[in-house]
Design goal:
The complex is a heterotrimer of chains A (about 80), B (about 110) and C (about 180). Chain A is mainly α and about 80 residues long. Chain A is about 90% helix and about 0% strand. Chain A has 3 helices and no strands. In chain A, helix 1 runs antiparallel to helix 2 and helix 2 runs antiparallel to helix 3. The longest helix of chain A is centred in the middle third of the chain and has 26 residues. Chain A is flat, with a radius of gyration of 15 Å. Chain C folds into 2 domains: about 45 residues; about 110 residues, no CATH class. Classes of the chains: A mainly alpha (about 80), B mainly alpha (about 110), C mainly alpha (about 180). At the A-B interface, helix 1, helix 2 and helix 3 of A face helix 1, helix 2 and helix 3 of B.
């Protein structure tokens, strides 16, 4: 089904806008917020691509990407708060 | 079935677009965090439900939709924690909001 | 409230970890089951005391599980859809005018346990437009949530609490104490 691939491509193109915000963001919190959103969107793109090709390994990668993004964001937030 | 999957995919992509536009357009950190919640809720929910419907329609393996459901559960469980931590960190760091806050009870009471 | 014994804490965490392992691998081959049992036992021995403080088998109750699933699938989803639509309207409007504020919202008296407080604040954070920044307790044992609200419509704190989390909190009060 071609729609899955189109949606995945749109997700990847939207990621470029998030990258723009990561380069631009005035403070570190802005950058981390955009990076967290980028993790999620790329995980969703991986899900769509795995459904399109029918290979289950991409689903595992999407799970790991989503979880690692969470852990990284919480660590950076704790560091910015000054409690690490 | 195919039309339902298309509608759900369109909805998910639309809300991801709203989240990305919000992250780019909002003037300060707090607004950006609020807008990025859109990606984590409606975007993820609709795309994962579309994926589950697709797997059922094409008689995929059971593993596929169980893993999709686990992904949805994990994202919905972990995303609020990271958002809360980032919001608090930005406030404690002293990031100025772009406009004066209408009410600021947090500064008046100052817990801890 | 007395603390549960160590074995019950371990057993409850072990069951939870093992169910999660079954979900992730989704096979009932003997090799997978034995490996999952060993891993869950080790993980439960290390992390059980962080997870459970009051009653070990509180959630393993069919009525509570059914209410939890009903809440997640219908009530919470409806709130999320409403908030998402208003957020989309705000982001796509050309002027982008809003009035943000951090408001102190009183919590209900029924919800006291840490799991209940965590679930209410997570649900508040997951609806776009509101983020919980902190939960504090005053001298009388009443809980307050500090919520960053992107469009402050009510300055009265009771009414603001009703608008932000009224229905969700009533339903969560039926699940957690």
């Amino acid at each position: 089904m071609i729609e899955l691939l189109i949606a995945a491509i749109i997700c990847v193109v939207l990621n470029l806008f998030l990258l723009f915000r990561i380069f631009r963001g005035p403070t570190a919190a802005d950058r981390m917020c955009a990076a967290d959103a980028l993790d999620l969107v790329s995980a969703l793109a991986l899900v769509l691509y795995s459904l399109y090709t029918g290979r289950a390994i991409y689903l595992d990668i999407a799970l790991v990407v989503a979880l690692l993004g969470f852990v990284g964001t919480v660590f950076v937030a704790r560091y910015l708060e000054g409690r690490l | 079935m195919r039309i339902a999957i298309d509608i759900l995919l369109g909805l998910g992509v639309f809300f991801i677009l709203v989240g990305v536009l919000g992250v780019n357009r909002m003037p300060d950190v707090f607004g950006r965090l609020q807008a990025s919640t859109c990606i984590a809720t409606m975007g993820t929910i609709s795309i994962v439900i579309a994926g589950i419907l697709y797997a059922i329609a094409n008689a995929g393996e059971t593993v596929t939709y169980v893993k999709l459901a686990v992904l949805l559960l994990l994202v919905m469980g972990t995303n609020p924690i990271s958002n809360h931590a980032l919001c608090k960190a930005a406030y404690k760091m002293g990031v100025k909001p772009s406009k004066e806050l209408a009410i600021d009870d947090y500064k008046e009471d100052d817990p801890e | 409230m007395q603390k549960p014994s160590k074995f019950l804490v371990w057993l409850s965490t072990f069951i939870f970890c093992f169910l999660f392992w079954l979900l992730l691998t989704w096979s009932v081959a003997a090799r997978e089951l034995i490996l999952g049992g060993i891993v869950s036992a080790v993980v439960a021995a290390f992390s059980g005391r962080f997870l459970i403080h009051h009653q070990a088998f509180y959630l393993y109750n069919p009525v509570r599980l059914v209410i939890l699933i009903f809440y997640c699938a219908i009530i919470f989803l409806w709130e999320v859809i409403k908030a998402n639509l208003s957020m989309a309207k705000l982001v796509l409007s050309p002027k982008l005018k809003y009035e943000a504020g951090i408001i102190r919202v009183p919590g209900s008296e029924k919800i006291k346990s840490e799991y209940g407080l965590a679930m209410v604040s997570n649900c508040i954070t997951l609806t776009p437009g509101t983020i919980t920044m902190d939960v504090a307790e005053d001298e009388d044992g009443k809980n307050y949530y500090y919520v960053h609200w992107i469009n402050v419509a009510e300055s009265d704190r009771e009414k603001a609490g009703e608008a932000i989390k009224g229905r969700m909190e009533r339903w969560i009060g039926r699940i957690w104490k």
